[in-house]
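As a warm-up, study this chain.
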Amino acid sequence: MTTTLRTRALAATIGGLALVASLGAAPANAKAGDVRVAGTCNKSATTKIKLGLRDGRIETETEVDSNRNGQSWSVRMRQNGVLVLNTTAVTKAPSGSFSVRKVLPNRAGTDTITAVSRNAATGQTCTVTARL
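Now compare it with the structure written out below.
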């Protein structure tokens, strides 16, 4: 076997192992058909939402990661424009993030879920919208 052929074979093997490892890293509660969307923040935080059909209902999970522990955020979630959640959440170690879960009714047609998170102390605002 030539050096070039060995190098290509090694690269293919490493690539295959990396693919298998990344597949195994998916969350245990992730299901086929789940909708995942990354949102936007006006400062250095990140946000995302996951929607999934479970027993005829919509399971939602929204997350904000600011990389700062102990921050208090207000979280409002709307389903098709109607307020369905108004709560507060605090970022926790080790990642400086929080997640909020809510199970919603599955309305007729496409459901539009929007989560807006605000940190009054820092002026950060994060918004994410997904449809299912």
